[in-house]
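testing teh design pipeline on a random one, pls ignore if ur not involved
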């Protein structure tokens, strides 16, 4: 197949994002699509077969769009976009969120883009899937965007106080000091989006609130964006209780990983039960992330896939169960 060259014009910001530190991004693109990418100035030239050039061009254009929106472009972004394109998908035009310390926050995968669309469309959303898919970070970013625009009065964050070998009451301090360690990922996200000073100011004013699910009983949460994190560790009764806290003008997102249940009886998890009975209810949206949506270190995706394969291997086969029962 004939190998030809084409040239893509890029501004300096986009060019730096495409090349990457020590030309790492370019090296990944070249290795993935068997092309030669050079940067003679003012853009990049792509040498390879027509199909390989087209795939590489899609990656480069997606990275350039990300950079033009002010977002930081990382190696994880490059790998994610390449995976989407190699899988036959099209890298979606990202829905911009607030600008954090590392630039504009944008979805890194098609699944993340669909997740944000679900959050915008539905009063009650579920984001479920493996660790590292961004489901909690994007929920926090979306909630922060609503708070900054005045579309909600409060951001309420809650989760079950379930940990291996450690209970909430054993931790020292007041309620915030007890709860904060459990919500570290969300505080990190909010600090990145709003800045630590703004987060603390809003907490002092009651605009951002964190509490264990047990403290939600009896409350009505109106004009608030509610994040229920680590929902796989809620019981069925806890899940029903927290879902029915929604008041006028409120929205809620429930996040969790069904493969990481820490309850003594995993079958009591309220997340799987809620997904089963609420999936088709009007106003409810569900986005299920998969291993290929992991946007942390590339090793995380491989770890998730290995655990999924092991779980599938250990799962009882229906035909075998039937023979045993006989």
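output:
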């Amino acid at each position: 197949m004939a190998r030809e060259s084409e040239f893509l014009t890029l501004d300096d910001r986009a060019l730096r994002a495409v090349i990457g530190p020590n030309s790492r991004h370019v090296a990944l693109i070249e290795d993935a699509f068997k092309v030669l990418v050079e940067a003679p100035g003012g853009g990049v030239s792509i040498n390879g077969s027509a199909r390989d050039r087209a795939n590489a061009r899609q990656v480069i254009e997606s990275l350039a769009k990300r950079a033009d929106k002010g977002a930081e472009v990382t190696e994880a972004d490059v790998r994610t976009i390449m995976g989407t394109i190699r899988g036959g998908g099209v890298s979606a035009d990202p829905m911009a969120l607030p600008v954090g310390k590392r630039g504009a926050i944008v979805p890194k995968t098609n699944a993340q883009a669909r997740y944000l669309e679900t959050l915008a469309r539905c009063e009650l959303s579920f984001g479920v899937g493996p660790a590292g898919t961004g489901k909690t970070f994007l929920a926090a970013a979306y909630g922060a965007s609503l708070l900054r625009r005045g579309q909600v009065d409060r951001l309420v964050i809650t989760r079950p106080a379930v940990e291996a070998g450690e209970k909430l009451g054993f931790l020292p301090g007041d309620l915030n000091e007890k709860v904060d360690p459990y919500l570290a990922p969300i505080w990190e996200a909010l600090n990145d989006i709003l800045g630590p000073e703004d987060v603390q100011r809003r907490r002092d004013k009651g605009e951002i609130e964190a509490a264990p699910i047990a403290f939600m009983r009896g409350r009505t949460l109106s004009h608030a964006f509610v994040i229920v994190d680590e929902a796989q560790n809620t019981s069925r009764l806890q899940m029903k209780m927290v879902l029915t806290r929604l008041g006028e003008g409120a929205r809620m997102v429930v996040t969790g990983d069904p493969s990481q249940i820490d309850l003594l009886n995993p079958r009591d998890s309220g997340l799987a039960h809620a997904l089963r009975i609420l999936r088709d209810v009007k106003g409810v949206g569900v986005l299920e992330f998969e291993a290929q949506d992991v946007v942390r270190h590339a090793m995380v995706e491989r770890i998730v896939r290995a655990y999924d394969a092991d779980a599938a291997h250990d799962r009882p086969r229906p035909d075998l169960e039937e023979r045993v029962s006989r």
